[in-house]
């Protein structure tokens, strides 16, 4: 009598085991993967290709200039019903979950279009302090994540030569401006004299050649006159501007007529400037 249930259990044990396993799977799927696993996943339960994984082809190092929106692209395959979050590593702040922004800082935004694998973190008006590591995280159990490095740099313009330029009337003003430390070429570079954008049509003999590739802009004003003197500023769209004072002088003074670079000591330069100023004033008095 006692042996009968024992035999019965033996006969049905494989079937019971299979049923219990299947119900465990069902519970796990129903809960969106939050059930803690009690056993090692076997190959037929969790084939590797059904799990979310990162598409590793997106760039993980990004450099931008202050104020230029930055985009970090995270691509996740087989996401299923999991969520993609962006975390700031510095303070483990959750920035976005899915397409929602979780921080008060509205400069952080998650960009995603339906059906796409891409979850992009957009950082508007980035500042230097936004530099650092950001993590794209997928809510699998355990979590998987991928780190992205963002550098926010200050881009500056530089005009080759001295910040004070003395030029003989009738010779050319030739200024070269280079944009330094810029990951992207600026979309435009403006030249100003004083407060005003240089007007090409107002006076002949002005040429501006801007090369995106070398991030330079050359301003050439031929046969300059004293009226062309002033504070010349090179203002790229995405960089701090640079200025140079140009003095166009009447009269002759060979030593003073050298363009741009002078390795004189400060005192000698000041004496020279004073001398030129007197010369200049003298030419008006005459
Ligand atoms: C992507 O990179 C992560 C970490 O570097 C690695 O663990 C994972 O296997 C890679 N995935 C693919 C599909 O190459
Ligand atoms: C302007 O100066 C640059 C070097 O600073 C020189 O290469 C170029 O030939 C000059 N252009 C003219 C028209 O003088
Ligand atoms: C440039 O100068 C011309 C001629 O004086 C004038 O008609 C034009 O409005 C000026 N353009 C700008 C942008 O100042
Ligand atoms: C030249 O103009 C720039 C921009 O307006 C200004 O920052 C700079 O102080 C000026 N330089 C001089 C010597 O006036
Ligand atoms: C300016 O002069 C210094 C010292 O003589 C030299 O090292 C530098 O290359 C010069 N710069 C230009 C633009 O000529």
Structure description:
This protein is α+β, with helices and mostly antiparallel strands and 286 residues long. It has 2 helices and 19 strands. The strands form 4 sheets. A 6-stranded mixed beta sheet has the order 2-10-9-4-5-6, with no helix packed on it. Strands 12-19-18-14-15 form a 5-stranded mixed beta sheet, with helices on one face. Strands 1-3-8-7 form a 4-stranded antiparallel beta sheet, with no helix packed on it. Strand 4 and strand 5 form a beta hairpin. The site of one 2-acetamido-2-deoxy-beta-D-glucopyranose has 4 residues, from loops. InterPro entries: Ig-like_dom (IPR007110), Ig-like_dom_sf (IPR036179), Ig-like_fold (IPR013783), Ig_sub (IPR003599), Ig_sub2 (IPR003598), Ig_V-set (IPR013106), Zig-8 (IPR037448). It comes from Neodiprion lecontei (Redheaded pine sawfly). Pfam families: Ig_3, V-set. Keywords: Signal.
**Name given to the CATH homologous superfamily of the largest domain:** Immunoglobulins
Residue windows where pLDDT falls under 50 for at least 5 positions: 1-45, 254-272, 281-286
Which structural class do you get from the secondary structure elements? Answer: alpha+beta
Total beta-strand segments: 19
Distance between the termini: 136 Å
Q: Name the hetero compounds present.
A: 2-acetamido-2-deoxy-beta-D-glucopyranose
CATH topology of the largest domain: Immunoglobulin-like
Major β-sheet profile: 6 strands, mixed
Give the overall average pLDDT.
Answer: 79
Approximately what portion of the residues adopt beta-strand conformation? Answer: 35-45%
Q: Which term fits the overall shape?
A: elongated
Order of strands across the main sheet: 2-10-9-4-5-6
Pfam families: Ig_3, V-set
InterPro entries: Ig-like_dom, Ig-like_dom_sf, Ig-like_fold, Ig_sub, Ig_sub2, Ig_V-set, Zig-8
Domain Ig-like: 52-139, 142-245
Protein name: Limbic system-associated membrane protein isoform X1
């Amino acid at each position: 009598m006692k042996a009968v249930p024992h035999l019965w259990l033996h006969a049905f044990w494989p079937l019971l085991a299979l049923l219990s396993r299947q119900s465990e799977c069902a519970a796990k799927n129903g809960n969106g993967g939050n059930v803690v696993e009690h056993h090692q996943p076997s190959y037929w339960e969790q084939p590797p290709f059904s799990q979310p994984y990162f598409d590793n082809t997106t760039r993980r190092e990004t450099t931008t200039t202050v104020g230029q929106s930055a985009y970090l692209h995270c691509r996740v395959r087989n996401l299923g019903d999991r969520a993609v979050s962006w975390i700031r590593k510095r303070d483990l702040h959750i920035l976005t979950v899915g397409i929602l922004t979780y921080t008060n800082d509205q400069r952080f935004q998650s960009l995603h279009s339906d059906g796409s694998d891409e979850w992009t973190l957009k950082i508007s008006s980035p500042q230097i302090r936004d530099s650092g590591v950001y993590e794209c995280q997928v809510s699998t159990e355990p979590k998987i994540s991928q780190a992205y490095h963002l550098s926010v740099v200050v881009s500056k313009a530089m005009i080759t030569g001295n910040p004070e330029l003395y030029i003989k009337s009738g010779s050319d003003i030739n200024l070269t401006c280079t944009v330094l430390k810029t990951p992207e070429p600026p979309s435009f570079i403006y030249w100003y004299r004083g407060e005003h954008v240089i007007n090409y049509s107002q006076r002949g003999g002005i040429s501006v050649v801007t090369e995106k590739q070398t991030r330079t802009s050359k301003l050439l004003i031929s046969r300059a006159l004293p009226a062309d003197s002033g504070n010349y500023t090179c203002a790229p769209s995405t960089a701090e501007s640079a200025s140079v004072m140009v003095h166009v002088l009447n009269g002759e003074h060979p030593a003073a007529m050298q363009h741009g670079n002078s390795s004189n000591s400060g005192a000698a330069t000041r004496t020279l400037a004073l001398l030129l100023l007197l010369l200049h004033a003298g030419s008006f008095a005459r």
